[in-house]
Amino acid sequence: MHNPRLPFWVAGVCSLVNFCYGMFVLPESLPPERRQPKLQWKNANPVGALRLLRSHAELLGLAAVNFLGYVVNEIYVTVYVLYVIYRFGWNPRMIGISLAVVGIASMVSYSLVGPIVERLGERRTLLTGLACATAGFAMFGWPSPIVFLVAIPVNALWALAGSTSQSLMTRHVSASEQGELQGALASLRGVAMLFGPGIFSLTFAYFISPAHLHPSAPWQLATILMLVSLAVAWVVAKDKDKNTIKDADEFATVVG
Asked: pLDDT for 114-127, tens place per residue?
């Protein structure tokens, strides 16, 4: 018997297991001397956490790259299913298969981050990931189900950008501020989740109306946003070797 609630129950159980693992098994990553001496209440909120991102130009620029990515990512949860039903007439089975391919492609892409960073460096890996994401979203808007399926592994290489951008960002905060940085990024994601669904769902609704009939518009909008993200990353991202001396000095200050 089919139960439409079952995926939500499974997701809830997995989230609970993840919480228990983090609470009772996962060790603290920072030694006592590098931890925050006390809780800073002025930063213990989304707005306060975002102040950290203004402390360095590259940090702020990479935060903008991440924010645009978080906004664009909402196209999956708001438009993906509606689009393939409207454009290609896919049934639930085909939708499920395609989403499974999305998950598998993403998993493979994450496994490639380390080797590709080692070969290309962080900056070029970041730019490669953003370029693949841009190409993938452009392909998603092509009126062909075959091209749409091919776009899935291309777009999945976007995973190269997320890890490398955060790695680049961690160099501009002290060891005791790493958790605050992750909180700031989570705040950005929360803000993106407020705006992203509305932007893409309204765009899709507007452009499938009889007066417009352009269902690819959300994917084209995503492509434009990713191009902006790529341009920002091109300007602000620096390779590790260009920051080694500065980072060493900052690290010595933190631990000394």
From this structure: 999 999 999 999 99
List of residues 6+ apart from 23 with CB closer than 8 A: none
As a whole number of angstroms, the distance between CA 184 and CA 132 comes to 26
CA distance 173 to 167: 11
Q: CA-to-CA distance for 126 and 130, rounded, in angstroms?
A: 6
CA dihedral (18, 20, 25, 28) positive or negative: positive
Task: Please return the burial class of 120, using the count of CB atoms within 10 Å of its CB with bins 0-12, 13-18 and 19+.
Answer: middle
The Cα–Cα gap between 8 and 176 comes to 36
138: Cβ–Cβ under 8 A, 6 or more apart, which residues? 219, 220, 223
What interhelical angle do 57-75 and 178-207 show, nearest 10? 40
Q: The tokens of 146 are what?
A: 């075959």
- CA-to-CA separations, 146 to 68, 78, 134, 151, 152, in angstroms, rounded: 27, 21, 18, 9, 10
List alpha helices for 121-144, DSSP H: 122-140
- C-alpha to C-alpha distances, 145 to 3, 92, 154, nearest whole angstrom: 28, 15, 15
Over the stretch 177-229, which tens digit does the pLDDT of each residue have?
777 777 788 888 888 999 999 999 999 999 998 877 899 999 999 999 999 99
Look at residue 218 and give its three-state secondary structure. Answer: helix
- Helix axis angle for 178-207 and 159-170, nearest 10°, is 150
Q: Within the chain, which residues score under 70 in pLDDT?
A: 1, 29-50, 176, 239-256
